[in-house]
């Protein structure tokens, strides 16, 4: 081969190699550049979901529609703007209701924006829509967000293509097939507080079946007052949900259950059964329910855990998950109870985690402390600058406990402490997780 031919060959190889690399990079870029742009022919299935049920239903819908509508796209409402909506001609909304008839966190911004545009006289008459609303009839405002969203879309002159479908959580769950539920055995139950009333209990459950692979943040739906394997008929009670307090790597499923007692002194149906009637060794039927909005994938990011009472369950599972990873990011735990002497559940374990460095910082506060009564909200307000510094740009907030007694107060104090915009950003970037009941 002459020198000229050699140079030509080398040149050709370099060009082909460069083109090939560019093609590969472009393909990779394109495959990652989701979501793809919306066009008038795109059918958008948009969900707003707090604990993942509406999201899962929306995913099922997209899978079912793919054959008929190849251009179907799944989006969280938080990923959509009104400009997007003005581009498409057909949408299906799958939305749950949260709080006291409010939108879930990832639907709030979109809804606020929609209301603003409606007030400005926006016209969405080019768009047809359907709403699938998820709710729970035990709440006074059943499926309220679906209803409000429908009213706003009507006011914007969008066309309702189907009457709204309302799913009641209880009928949905009870009519589900419980065959894929797991039979659990209560191996141990211990009392976590020393007070005469408001017993808080740790339940250890094991199973002879393969251990389900749940994730921190998931929930166990328990069928109350039913002993699997006995001849007794299955009672007609709706399952009760409990945040799972452990991770599968621990080899057991832990629950932290508050014994509920009504004004007449009667024990709560499921909590009374779990904390009193059920004897160790007895079996129960429970199914793990995925709570995808409470799954934390970024284990390196700072994590601010806030909770009170039995909310410790959800917080414990997040700590246990990070305890499995040597390089996990820092955790700051803020936990509230009532009495400093009697109410320090899992004290030993938490202190060990603190010594091992799994927890960076722990603040315990007590609302009935004679010297310094305080709620978790007070810690956020008093340590506002430290909260802001701890969270930085990547930090996640995880709140677990009673919605009425704690959830709304925590959000208010966070907004005061780190600013409206930062909290909206946390919500938008799905870094604010709330497992509230
Ligand atoms: C704290 C809290 C508040 C709720 N408030 C309502 C409500 O006001 N109205 C309603 O119909 N359902 C309410 N629900 C029930 C949920 O909408 C229902 O469980 C739904 O299936 C959850 O769907 P998701 O997992 O997609 O968020 C509430 C649930 C929780 C945990």
Automatic annotation (TrEMBL):
This entry's Enzyme Commission designation comes to 1.6.2.4
Q: Which UniProt keywords apply?
A: Electron transport, Flavoprotein, FMN, Membrane, Transmembrane, Transmembrane helix, Transport
Flavodoxin-like domain spans which residues? 43-189
Start and end residues of each FAD-binding FR-type domain: 179-297
Taken from the record, one Pfam family name reads NAD_binding_1
Any Gene Ontology CC annotation:
cytosol
Q: Which GO terms describe its molecular function?
A: flavin adenine dinucleotide binding; FMN binding; oxidoreductase activity
Q: Is the keyword Membrane in the record? A: yes
InterPro entries under this entry?
FAD-bd_FR_type, Flavdoxin-like, Flavodoxin/NO_synth, Flavoprot_Pyr_Nucl_cyt_Rdtase, Flavoprotein-like_sf, FNR_nucleotide-bd, OxRdtase_FAD/NAD-bd, Riboflavin_synthase-like_b-brl
Q: What class of enzyme is it?
A: oxidoreductase
Note the superkingdom of the native organism.
Bacteria
Q: Which residues cross the membrane?
A: 6-26
Q: What is the official name of this protein in its record? A: NADPH--hemoprotein reductase
Q: Which source organism?
A: Pseudidiomarina sediminum
